[in-house]
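hiii, so i know i said id send this last week but things got crazy w the move. better late than never?? heres the sequnce for the chain we talked about at the cafe, plus the structure i predicted for it. fair warning i was half asleep when i ran it
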Amino acid sequence: MRDIDRIMEVYESAKSYMRSQGNSGQWVGGYPDRETIMNDIVRGNHYLAEDEEEGLLMVFSFLLGDDPTYKVIEHGHWLNDKPYGTIHRIASSGIRSGMLDECVRYCSRQIDNIRIDTHADNSPMQNALHRLKFCFCGIIHIADGSPRLAFQKDFRPEIRMEIDFHFDQ
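okay and structure toks below
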């Protein structure tokens, strides 16, 4: 909670970046708001990565278990029905590149089956997910009914890699 102001600054910076890349439809109307992030923190689902010299690098939410948003998928199907973790609300400060890679490495050490979704206009995220070999699985709808592109990756434990900095919850 002591980092909430810095966390919200990262989200604002990420929104500006998305708008500069032509993504004007994602994270609108104040989302993600302070209350959403504080709820993630209270539940133990919000993470941040920081470097002593560079400061706050990235924030994200990671949930283990069924995500109600992912119960219905259209125009495709999930890779499997194994237990999974979901990455939500990932945002980078822009200080260091490769933050999605680091987030995915961390999360894949917690569970070897990861799901994530993004807005159709978020081409940088889609490109990064394809580069990381996530499979496009179909379309899901978030709570407000908006469609999102849904991706999944099933990791084999023997190929998981360690990360080189610490995540605080």
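btw Strands lie at 46-51, 55-64, 85-92, 113-118, 135-141, 147-154, 167-168. thought thatd interest u
miss u guys!!
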